[in-house]
Amino acid sequence: MTFLLSRRWILFFLTVVLLAFLAFRLGEWQFHRLEDRERTNAVVERNLAAEPAPVGSVLAVGEPVDPADEWRRVTATGEYVEDETVVVRYQTREGQSGVDVVTPLRTASGAALLVDRGWVATGNVGTTRPDVPAAPTGTVTVVGWVRVDATGDSTAVADRSTRAVSSEAIGPTLPFPVYGGFVDLERETPPAAQPLARTETPDLGEGPHFFYGLQWWFFAALAVFGFFYLAWDERRKARRPESEPEDQAVRAAN
């Protein structure tokens, strides 16, 4: 087994240890992601099953949404401010291009709730503002799922349009205060004359993390097994009698 002390085998051993450790850690990372997904799903399931709560008990003006409240249902009553509608561009469904329509619902407190009323297909390619169905007029009661504000450059508002919804970006463009976050509309009373396509609830599957984790751990085990197999094979070759190749050649010639 002295060959294991050679420079080649020492470098080979260190490489295998590094690869096995890396694969093991990647497997752990996937299992941690699975645990995070399970915790998130549990929160979403609880929120989806809860009864709608008054908007003021969940959201606050100028305050960010607590992540634990995302997908919780809230209810609010007020009047849509149609002139302040913001369209969310580049939203596709089943291969169709379209926009989401976000209209502030001004409540009796004076604060407005940003309501993503849904999606509508358009032929718009981003150069002009599309015509969208009108919101219900008069006093409207809405029930919607709480959503956390988007972040990044995509939230910038120009010409009453954006690429992602954020109360922090839309709020300053409005002449009244707004609640933090926004809601995806579930239902409204009275309903709109032309209802929009509602937002789908999130996928509560666990994703591929479990199988990815097993895959990485398999790679780690394979690297270790491969090293010991090659070491065993090298030892077997080293212990083979030197005359054996010659004897085999003589037998083959006969």
Automatic annotation (TrEMBL):
CDD domains, per the entry: SURF1
InterPro entries cross-referenced by the UniProt entry: Surf1/Shy1, Surf1/Surf4
UniProt subcellular location: Cell membrane; Membrane
Regions crossing the membrane: 210-232
Alphabetically ordered keywords of this record: Cell membrane, Membrane, Transmembrane, Transmembrane helix
Topology within the bilayer: Multi-pass membrane protein
Protein family: Belongs to the SURF1 family.
PANTHER family with a match to the protein in the record: SURFEIT LOCUS PROTEIN (PTHR23427), SURFEIT LOCUS PROTEIN 1 (PTHR23427:SF2)
Protein name in the entry: SURF1-like protein
Species this protein is from: Nocardioides jiangsuensis
